[in-house]
Design a protein that fits this description.
The protein is an alpha/beta fold and about 425 residues long. It has 14 helices and 24 strands. Strands 14-2-1-17-24 form a five-stranded parallel sheet, with helices on one face. A four-stranded parallel sheet has the order 11-10-12-13, sandwiched between helices. It has a three-stranded antiparallel sheet with strand order 3-9-6.
Length: about 425
């Protein structure tokens, strides 16, 4: 089977790269093992929230202070800025409305009622700036919902001088889920809230909100796209915002669904539930083909390949007691040789292993035995040199490196 580009990994970076290439009429296949980290996403994108433990207000300016091995430094500050302004239009093309300023971080509310820095966020999510407009806010949750904490949210509102109320609502469809506590999860509820069930939910929310200036609900609406959220807002007739829940995430699954849907409508092939087992690299340093579990002995062949397999979480990088390795091609991984340097015994300290990843050239070509693999690129968290958790930069790294590599492939071909 022959394609122009094959992408290994169907999460955020793989989908962004694939969609960018499919828009230009390239024949693209994405091989995705299963649920990506997007399913756990809060619905917000972080570009750069912290540097050396200090909060960042202007992420595009702060990029200039990062070490040379960081993916943003490899892109260069000007290239990061150039790509950053393309992100909102790119997602809008897939039906995903993001808001926020390119050169300023904001703060969105967490399920615990605290605030966390973000760069861009889904249009339906509440930020600290939004809350500054209101004096009375109704926090309306779903009865018996396990993954949202309205009392914590209310406590966070009180710290801002806002008067909160807390209430719980249900509908006949949600009542049926309640027969099993395992079903009372955000994604299960989200699958019910459409059509008549959404109308009933809107009526219940309006009644519970009373005379509040605005309403906060857990993000349980809009599994496949944002239209149910728009409909709910219109029916309620008051400013209504969502607050992220703990995973599984309706917001993250919505983003995954919309990006994949747009990719496939453009002719892309999404091989879900398959896993790349190995690939052959020729003597001149190019991938000749790859194999997958489901396709078996048949070779998948492309002009270019993109490794978007993720880090330890997605098993794009694998750790064993005495080695850390990349499992598909055996690529070089940036790892401190001494195992005792892989981690800090203080659990809450910055862990060195979080910066481990595939070693790449300035052009994002991975290295194998110190030599670049010419027709292979790496994007997203599989690349080393950054700690996405501490920096709050995971989504930004995924999106910007994917856009950059897609541009390079298009220019080279």
């Amino acid at each position: 089977m022959k394609y122009d580009i094959i992408i290994i990994g169907g999460g955020l970076s793989g989908l962004v790269a694939g969609l960018s290439l499919a828009k230009e009429n390239k024949r693209v296949a994405i091989v995705s093992l299963g649920q990506s980290a997007l399913h756990f996403s809060s619905g917000s994108l972080g570009l750069l929230g912290t540097v050396d433990g200090k909060a960042v207000e202007d992420p595009l300016e702060a990029v200039k202070t990062l070490p040379a091995e960081h993916p943003y430094s490899m892109l260069g500050a000007e290239r990061v800025k150039e790509l950053a302004v393309k992100v909102k239009p790119f997602f809008a093309d897939a039906g995903i409305t993001l808001r926020g300023e390119d050169s300023r971080n904001s703060e969105r509310m967490t399920p615990m009622g605290e605030f966390k820095r973000c760069w861009l966020t889904l249009d339906d999510f509440i930020t600290r700036e939004d809350l500054s407009k209101y004096k009375k806010v109704a926090v309306v949750s779903v009865l018996s919902f396990l993954d949202f904490y309205p009392d914590f949210v209310a406590s966070g509102l009180r710290k801002l001088g806002i008067e909160p109320s807390v209430s719980y609502v249900t509908t006949p469809e949600i009542d049926r889920l309640r027969r099993s506590t395992a079903e009372m999860r955000a994604t299960s509820i989200g699958r019910q809230l459409h059509g008549k069930a959404l109308d009933e939910f809107a009526d219940a929310v309006m009644k519970a909100a009373g005379d509040a200036d605005a309403i906060l609900i857990p993000c349980v609406v809009g599994m496949d796209d944002e239209e149910p959220v728009k409909a709910l807002r219109a029916k309620v007739g008051k400013p209504l915002y969502c607050v992220a829940t703990t995973p599984m995430s309706v917001a993250g699954q919505r983003m995954q669904t919309q990006l994949r849907r747009r990719f496939e409508r453009l002719g892309g092939t999404y091989l879900l539930g398959d896993n790349v087992t190995d690939g052959r690299i020729s003597e001149n340093g190019e991938i000749e083909y790859i194999h997958t579990v489901n396709i078996g002995d048949e070779k998948l062949v492309a002009d270019s390949y993109i490794l978007a397999s993720g880090d330890f979480f997605s098993r794009g990088i694998i750790a064993e007691p005495h080695r850390i390795y990349e499992p598909v091609f055996g690529l070089d991984v940036d790892v401190d040789g001494d195992r005792d340097k892989w981690f800090d015994r203080n659990f809450f300290a910055e862990q060195p292993y979080m910066k481990f990843g595939v070693a790449v050239s300035d052009d994002f070509h991975p290295l194998k035995d110190g030599k670049t693999v010419k027709n292979l690129y790496a994007v997203g968290s599989v690349i080393g040199g950054h700690n996405a958790l501490k920096e709050e930069s995971g989504a930004g790294t995924a999106v910007l490196t994917a856009l950059h590599v897609a541009d390079k492939i298009l220019k080279n071909n």
